[in-house]
Design a protein that fits this description.
- The protein has about 450 residues and is an alpha+beta fold.
- It folds into two domains: about 230 residues, 3-Layer(bba) Sandwich (FAD/NAD(P)-binding domain); about 160 residues, D-Amino Acid Oxidase, subunit A, domain 2 (D-Amino Acid Oxidase, Chain A, domain 2, 2-Layer Sandwich), CATH 3.30.9.
- The strands form five sheets. Strands 1, 2, 8, 9, 10, 11, 19 and 20 form an eight-stranded mixed β-sheet that branches.
- A hairpin with a 2-residue loop joins strand 22 and strand 23.
- The longest helix is centred in the last third of the chain and has 28 residues.
- The relative contact order is 0.18.
- Bound molecules: flavin-adenine dinucleotide.
- Flavin-adenine dinucleotide binds next to helix 1, strand 17 and helix 8.
Length: about 450
């Protein structure tokens, strides 16, 4: 299909955020919506795995929660294992959230399936994602100052009243609009620690894992953090897939861009599965059978200076940024895609009301943008805190109390904290509450 010459709303990017945005605008009565994506087919990597309660609440409002839950697997708890102990503990218990949500669990579902479900819903309302159309620039329309001209790689131009940048972390829309993208908490930067660089892989093993691995499980060793998350499993599947995530200390140098079997097996042996399995069952020598997908990234955070901008001061075409185009942060707690989906679904009613109204007052959109930005900063804060607690600082063999150094290993402090957590169901529900997003919708 070809691009239209004009549209009321142009959504750039058909990742989870762009698809949810199209659905919510449609639900609010908008019909002149165009959604484009640079690539011929959707992404095929699993990436974000967790959908939390606050996101399911809003996904329900656009009719998608039930199909996502049916396609994924729900988990009431997340577990943690301090290597050296002989039993694990509950880190987060989502069960007690039932007084605040219909979804007292974390939903584990690979991003590919999330995108497929959202994409099916978009198709069912008659909206077609136009591909491959790559945006290369935007500017205020020369003839109609309240519209934006959007330029495409193939030479086409589309004129839109509102342009929504859902085009990911390197957003061409954000860059063309001249909006800064930087870490709002630079002073809390988590530099030079063992979780600065992280590898992740979706793997199968040569034999079934102990039951303990049926829930998401964090394994803490004195020098690292290893996370194992089981993929949804259907009767009859040959092998269960697990996501493994592990820090790579800076002293080991940069990890490969697509870590292979031997690299991941080394992490499983030294920081993950085998250290726990051997404690429970004696030497088990679980080996990786197949690496289905793997990647690496450096943990850093950035947020757009504003999520709403008119291209010429208070006038000119209007551009909006949501999802990774507006904020990125470490994957701790599985928050990124959740935040993007909630940006998209919260924008729908505000933008739809603006499109219906004859007023030129941007203040509802500006306050929406301020609110969402503040929520983004809160999540960046949360993910940095989680990483700080889970990490072991290089050379950080003493723990600081205010500015006074105490001769206590940071990993010992971490073990004490876990011991307290394991005894307190209240703390476990507090961890679940923070991760669920229910206090920061
Ligand atoms: C390697 C990796 C691992 C990750 N792991 C996790 C994880 O474990 N947990 C977690 O919560 N999150 C994870 N994330 C983050 C998560 O994937 C993102 O938060 C989520 O994809 C954001 O969705 P989005 O729709 O905003 O952007 P994206 O998913 O990035 O989608 C952007 C879309 O815009 C399109 N596009 C880009 N530029 C243009 C252009 N110029 N013109 C037109 N279209 C364009 C792209 O083709 C793409 O389809 C990971 C990300 C990566 C890269």
């Amino acid at each position: 299909m070809s691009l239209p010459e004009t549209t009321e709303v142009l959504i750039v990017g058909a990742g989870p955020t762009g698809l949810a945005c199209a659905l919510t605008l449609y639900k609010e009565g908008c019909r002149d919506i165009t959604i484009v994506d640079a690539v011929e087919h959707g992404q095929n990597s699993s990436r974000a795995l967790a959908i939390h309660a606050a996101t399911l609440e809003v996904l329900d409002s656009i009719g998608c929660a039930r199909s996502l839950i049916e396609a994924g697997a729900t988990h009431r708890t997340m577990k943690v294992w301090n290597i050296g102990d002989d039993h694990g503990a509950t880190l987060a218990d989502f069960g007690p959230l039932k007084s605040s949500t219909r979804y007292p669990f974390v939903l584990i579902i690979p991003q590919t399936i999330t995108e497929r479900v959202l994409g099916d819903h978009v198709q069912s309302i008659g909206i077609q994602v136009l591909r491959p159309f790559k945006v290369v620039g935007v500017q205020s329309d020369k003839h109609d100052k309240n519209h934006t001209s959007v330029f495409f790689e193939g030479g086409q131009t589309v004129k839109a009243r509102y342009v929504i940048g859902c085009d990911g972390a390197k957003s061409a829309i954000r860059q063309a609009a001249g909006v800064d993208f930087k870490d709002p908490l630079e002073e809390r930067s988590t530099t030079d620690h063992n979780l600065d660089q992280i590898v992740l892989g979706d793997v199968t093993y040569t034999k079934p894992l102990p039951r303990l691995f049926d829930d998401p499980l964090f394994m803490l060793s004195p020098t690292n953090l290893f996370l194992s998350v089981p993929f949804p499993y259907n009767e009859g599947d040959a092998n269960r897939t697990y996501r493994v995530v592990c820090g790579v200390p800076p002293s080991s140098g940069p990890p490969p861009s697509q870590p292979g079997k031997a690299f991941l097996q080394d992490l499983v042996d030294n920081s993950g599965m085998n250290t726990v399995s051997s404690k429970v069952h004696g030497p088990s020598n679980v080996t990786i059978n197949e690496v289905i997908w793997s990647s690496r990234f450096r943990t850093h955070s950035s947020i757009a200076d504003t999520f709403f901008k008119r291209l010429e001061g208070d006038q000119g075409g209007a551009v909006i940024f949501i999802g990774d185009a507006a904020h990125i942060h470490p994957p701790a707690g599985g928050q990124g895609m959740n935040l993007g989906l909630r940006d998209a679904i919260s924008l729908g009613p505000i933008l739809a009301a603006r499109l219906r109204s004859s007023s030129s007052d941007d203040s509802p959109l500006r306050s929406w943008a301020d609110r969402r930005r503040q929520q983004g900063v809160t999540i960046i804060h949360l993910t940095k805190t989680i990483l700080g607690l889970a990490s072991v600082q290089n050379g950080g063999i003493v723990w600081m109390w205010n500015t006074v150094p105490l001769p206590i290993l940071r990993s010992t402090v971490r073990s004490w904290s876990l011991w307290i957590l394991a005894k307190s169901t209240w703390l476990q529900s507090q961890v679940a509450w923070r991760l669920s997003g229910l206090g920061n919708k």
